[in-house]
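Continuing the series of single-chain predictions for the mutant panel. This is the parent chain; the variants come on the following pages.
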Amino acid sequence: MPRTPTRLLTAAALTAAALLTATACTAGTPQAKEKPPAAPKKPSATGSAPAPRVLTQAQAQAALVTATDLGEPWAPTQGAATWRDGLLKATTESPECRRLLDALYADDLFGGNTGTRAVTGLDDPLDQTQLRYQVLALNTSDVDRTLAWLKSLPRGCGRFTAVTAHGAVQGVTVREADLPRVGDAQQGLRITLSSETADGEPTVLTMDVAAVRVGDDTIAVSLGGLGDVSPDATRAAVETGVRRLSEVRKSGRAQI
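Parent structure:
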């Protein structure tokens, strides 16, 4: 049998020793623990609130104030008052003041904007006044622009002259009216139109108007007459109306 050369034996011995040393080192070194897989990240919320539900016609109708809400002597209206055509149908030179007269005559502060709208009319036969109450669903920015316009009128149209469709000259005054602090934004005005009859008798038509934004909805009130026009009636209609509208909205959400 041939003899193994000494050089080959020595190399084999060194290789075996190296393998033993490497194995010993590996056995003495603690193995690093594997990290558990990272939990999947939750998708971030957009944070956007659900869009408000548009007021329905039935809800707007249910939110109207009634004669019972205001108490005696208020009753459902018997028709448009005669002073509406006789005194409110008028014009003037200033575009802003003419816009106010047109809004009073049309009983529409918001320029005919489309949307849900419910309207009721009530009469006070004792003071011979008439109240018109509306619940509307309009664009919020449009409502706020109208409120800002109303607020500007005591400065821009505090006193001016208007001429009726029958040629009678009227002196008109516009001042801010105090309203209950209800709703999210509001503005009220008291307007007086003074003139004389054909017999020289003085006549004074007093008009209270109010607009209140309640969230995404709006109420509008107008109260007018040739006699005593109590601002308390306007304030009562505003307070009752805002409360009624809030209740209708809350009830509607509960049914969703």
